[in-house]
Amino acid sequence: MNNENGQSDRATEATRSHKGTEARRIALVTGAGSGIGRAAAQRLLRDGFTVVVAGRRAEPLDDFVTEAHASGGEALAVTADVRDEASVDALFATIEETYGRLDVVFNNAGINAPAVPMDELSVEKWRDVIDTNLTGVFLCARAAFRLMRRQSPQGGRIINNGSISAHAPRPFSSPYTASKHAVLGLTKSIALDGRAFNIVASQIDIGNALTELSARMQKGVLQANGTTATEPMCDVADIAGAVSYVANLPLSTNVLNMTVMASNMPFVGRG
Fold first, then answer.
1. 152 in any annotated domain
2. pLDDT band for position 227 (50/70/90)?
3. N or C, where is the chain less crowded by C-beta within 10 Å?
4. Which residues of 67-105 are buried (b: 16+ CB within 10 A; e: fewer)?
5. DSSP state, 131?
6. Cα–Cα distance, 77 to 86 (Å, whole number)
């Protein structure tokens, strides 16, 4: 159950007892209800982070908090829509009020559009993808930047979930590919603008991680030559490990861009 601010009631009581205690590392994961987001949140929890999980569905977030507390970890669930400025601002206000700072954000929330020729794609579907994958990353990165800039000690790490689509498209993927190309430029801009404030930015480009949503790819994926073929998949735990590696680096060191993918998927080479 969540209160009117989107914060889990169980998590509210748990986190109150931690105010005023010794410094701890706080991480936020968006789109944390399932898939890559949930796996990354679980890994950061094991790394010793206090993890704020955000998403549009309250139930899986609350389940994560329950599991975290059962294992001795600390977590906070906040329902939020990354496409909505007010919702994002409320999310970060809750983080600041509860913990006073934020050390890492993994901007993971994202969606795709139907794989159809461009002339069959509605503007509504285009906007849904751009609003979530690009504007959502911007809104969360902007709010994180604002908090990291003024907190003491100053600084923090912003990690964006990119895609190999930030470098090469699949057939009929114009909104998704455009959004991920744009996130790559945004990541570089954040990394540059953050230098004066000890804020670093990274992008992890992910290819064929096996989740509930991507399992369909095992039945066949449209290729550049017009055929349909099955593709190798990689374990989502390995993606979480990559997020963990970047998140745990000192702020004096950064991985600006990392590609983690199934080794034999059709990305390198001619398709």
1. yes
2. confident
3. N
4. ebeeeebbbbbbbbbbbbeebbebbbebbbebbebbbbb
5. I
6. 17
Q: 204 with 212: CB under 8 angstroms?
A: no
Residues 27-78 have pLDDT tens digits of 999 999 999 999 999 999 999 999 999 999 999 999 999 999 999 999 999 9
Pairing of strands 209-210, 228-229: unpaired
Beta bridge partners of 79: 55
Number of domains in the chain: 1
CA-based radius of gyration for the chain: 18
Q: How far is Cα 242 from Cα 220, in angstroms, rounded to an integer? A: 26
CATH code at position 257 = 3.40.50.720
Detail the DSSP E strand segments found in the chain. Answer: 26-30, 50-55, 75-79, 104-107, 156-161, 199-207, 209-210, 221-222, 228-229, 234-235, 257-261
Please check the confidence at residue 271 and state whether its pLDDT lies above 80.
no
> Is the pLDDT assigned to residue 148 strictly greater than 60?
yes
Contact 260, 205 (CB under 8 A): yes
- Grade residue 104 by pLDDT with cuts at 50, 70 and 90: very high
Q: Classify strands 221-222 and 228-229 as parallel, antiparallel or unpaired.
A: antiparallel
CB 80 within 8 A of CB 28: no
Q: Structural domain of residue 92, as residue ranges?
A: 9-15+24-261
* Token output for 57: 């569905």
Residue 205 lies in a domain: yes
Place of tokens 């899986």: 60
Assess if residue 187 is contained within a domain. yes
Question: Is cis: bond before 153, omega within 30 of 0?
Answer: yes
Which pair of structure tokens corresponds to residue 175? 């909104």
Query: Of 13 and 159, which is predicted with more confidence?
Result: 159
pLDDT digits (tens, 9 = 90+) for 172-196: 999 999 999 999 999 999 999 999 9
Tokens coding 147: 């908090």
Mind telling me the catalytic residues? 176
